[in-house]
Predict the 3D structure of the following.
Amino acid sequence: MYSNLYIRALTILVSIVSVVAIPQSSRADVTFDHSILGYKINIFGTITQADAAQISARESDFDHGGWQPQVLLNSTGGDLDAAMEIGRIIRRNNARAFVEPGAKCFSSCSLIYIAGVFRGVSGTGVVGLHRPYFASSPQSRQTIEREAPLMLQGVQKYVHEMGVQDAFYQVMANTEPSNMKLYGLKLFGHREIESLVPMLDPTYDEIETSYDAREHGISTMEMRSRKADADSRCSVLDIDAYKCSFPIEWGLSEGVFDERWALTKSKCFPSGEDKEREQKILDLVKTKDLRDHPIKLKREACVRDVMLAR
């Protein structure tokens, strides 16, 4: 489980790394990149069914190097069904969704944003919500009366499927398309969108907290307490933020943490041919399954024993 400190630092890092990665000259609305942080999906322009098909066709590539895919959003909207299809693919792959400085994520794009297991809006990035509407040629009254409620029901079902509370849907459904509500950066770093969409998906948060608690040999309640303590005591802008937070999460002083952490490198991690052999095995494991793989469990148990002086 990543602490808020780590997550906010990651948001900043992703923004810095990815700004130059988007090939602005491309005419496509979706591009794909590999970076030091894994697989990156750039969605910009108008969202269409062709975009959904393109992303679906590349889904088998998303599990890359043990990192969750990153989805960078800069779109004023488009096809509603395509956006929800893309969102389901993103959620299926535990992807993270980002709206970077200067980027817009309006209308149906917001449905892709909420699909991320982690969602981040940076700097002058903005998320915009309004009620979905028909963009086709004028329809008959009978058609609209039949189809409009079904469209809204589909969106509400999708929002709940993504683990987002009904407040998000209510804002979307009750906002006139001509009067879109914008959610950007507020004072003191609080992002308005977080009042509707938490940074971490609740189910994903519970899963990661459970993994982290297991790794540290403590309860999930204690894990949350230690992470909150680290977030309050360690500055995200401090170059030694991790050096500050990790000892707190292990319940150790910095000196003891450094000593035991150095010992784990020689005791718990292989070298030479053994390291290469294990890495080849792990490279074939899906990111979702890595932390439960026998090799990872063995390393985790060894690290835990060393860090807790067992």
Remarks:
- The first strand starts at residue 30 and ends at 35.
- Residues 12-27 have pLDDT under 50 and may be disordered.
- The domain at 4-200 is CATH 3.90.226.10 (2-enoyl-CoA Hydratase; Chain A, domain 1).
- The chain has twelve helices and eight strands.
